[in-house]
Amino acid sequence: MVLDAAGTRNRCPVCLRHTGMRSRSRILVARKARRPSAQTPSSFPYLNGQKMVSQRELLGRLGGFIDAVPRALPIAVELRNPWWIDRRYFEFIAEKGLFHVFLQGYFMPAIFEAWKKYGSFIRGSVVIRLYGPVREGIEKQTGESWDLIVAPKDEELSRLVDMMSDMRIAASPST
Description:
The protein is of the alpha/beta class. The protein is built from 5 helices and 6 strands. The chain has helices at 55-68, 87-96, 111-118, 135-142, 154-171; strands at residues 2-3, 9-10, 29-30, 76-77, 99-104, 127-130. The chain has a 3-stranded antiparallel sheet, with no helix packed on it. Helix 2 (87-96) links the parallel strand 4 and strand 5 (99-104). The radius of gyration is 18 Å and the shape is globular.
């Protein structure tokens, strides 16, 4: 059974369209309990400073969640607050055995600087998400056509190849 933050039963544990939620602003928890425990948050508000006021609060709630769920599958964390991607966050994910999601674009700083600064905290896998500019702006430029390249990212792709090579080297056992 999957419950959202309000304790509503949902049909699909992995598909947000079945949750009744309108955005990807929630983390869902599959549990056997009838209602989410106050100790274990089942959702994390997205870009809402009134609901998640600090990085400390986020890490505390996320830590409780991580400690309570079975760890049969790897868990990756994607932050969308550039001010919270810092040493404290990377120490937290290393301590909890989590994976970081590097998000390029979407109003976030370049992933290359985050890797350079915090790569030593990375343990195991990462997820790299490459976002473009805001969709409406691209559609306006192209007349809603998606078969045109309007913002080439050749230099970014080259840097990404270098970054991934560095990641591979860092993950290799020392000889």
